[in-house]
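Below: protein 1.
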Amino acid sequence: MRAMILAAGRGERMRPLTDRMPKPLLPVAGRPLIVHHIEALKAAGIRDIVINTAWLGERITEALGDGAAFGVRLAYSDEGSQALETGGGIFKALPLLGDEPFIVVNGDVWTDFSFESLPEVPTGVAHLVLVDNPSHHPEGDFRLQAGRVVEDQGERFTFSGIGVYRPQLFADCRPGAFRLAPLLRAAIARGDVTGEHHGGHWIDVGTPARLAALDRMLQKTV
């Protein structure tokens, strides 16, 4: 099974930290944020990982190389000077991801979720990991109902940015910048998306304050 780490964003909310360093390389507990993902994916048996790049992408490729230092194989999907957003970035990387279902994780989150629990072959076109709603997103995104992701009324959870996708999810897409969310919502409306709830740690590392809080938390555990 292959995986993709989304790492092409500009990181506007992280400025000025991201003016000269791409957000995935910001240090957390002594290691770049993206390295935490690489290590977690490797622990789950994932050896082939695709990383998309745009803003300061050359810094990422220089820092990580071919992945040999981490015991994995890294491939890069270069989006040029303008990131293609979540959906467009995954669509462009499909030739590197192959014909089988693959894992995608947002590069700007941190979690203790175990990737090995994800289904290698989801029953629908996508399988999403949902988490408890953080204070900055109290309304949540989706509900879970008998293992299916739904959007009707009731208790909602937040989409973690972790999912397993079949390439067929992108069958009607065209090259260019577009978001993943509309594709997921259309599939959810068809009843074609399963999901699970992760009750452990998950942090959207979207601001300098959250980055600092995560660093303090992890420093206490090492």
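Below: protein 2.
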Amino acid sequence: MTTHTTAQGNDASSTDAADADKALKAKHRTMWGLGDYPAVATEVIASLGPVLVEACGVGPSDTVLDVGAGSGNVAIPAARTGATVTASDLTPALLENGRLAAQAEGVTLEWEEGDAEHLPYDADAFDVVLSCVGVMFAPHHQESADEIVRVTRQGGRIGLLSWTPQGFIGQMFATMKPYAPPPPPGAQPPPLWGDEEHVRALLGDRVRDVTATRQTLVVDRFSSGEEFRDFFKATYGPTIAVYAAIADEPGRVATLDAELAELGRRYGADTGRMEWEYLLLTARKA
């Protein structure tokens, strides 16, 4: 009798965990559909995709998966090389934006909804698996890393580009953290993907030939801290979500406004030249 009760309990726990994960992913899907992330991708970080494609030597003979593809910041440049590319993301609205951008450019690739922690692909399915400031936002880092390794063929390349904790975007998240609702149990901060040791630990001995460098994206899109802040308040899902959480507290809104503008100034927005640090890590599946 005890054994039967325990089994029921385990089944219930599994169901509860699955339901919680489904609710969390729905929340993420909604968040990234807020604002206008494609504007961030095209007006601010467009050069990052080609950097990652080049670092991984993507070419016409490759099958490529872009995890957390968004509107195609990496997938479209990868497809330009003649590679066979699949862009996977949790948020259908971003994929639709990417599909339209690819059509306008005359580039062909597949756009498929998928969860980075549960990729809908066979093991060893791709020659190259990439993610540019994408997979870092999946809440459970080890699950995402396991999936990236699983779908990469033996000897295939893995390329990850992520904002560092110390860099501008990492510090933006640190600035917003006191104003945001507490993260769900088990969720990890996105900028940890910009810490080399953290990513090496996630991938473990399943990869070889790891190279990791901290590089800088020069951003000349903004002329003041206020302009940076207002752009992100209008376009960037995580920032919009934080402001929504404190919308009924005008004092806290004003304080966060001031802190984000000051952060922008500290990183050079008022000079018209900001430097945003990221970690570029490449490896081969062992």
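Residues 1-7 have pLDDT under 50 and may be disordered.
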